[in-house]
Amino acid sequence: MKTFFRAVIWMAAAVVGLGVWNVAPDFRPLVSAILAAAFVCYVLSVIVEVTVKRVISDEQLELRSRLEVLDKKVTAILREAFERRHPR
Question: Is the pTM of this model over 0.85?
Answer without folding.
Answer: no
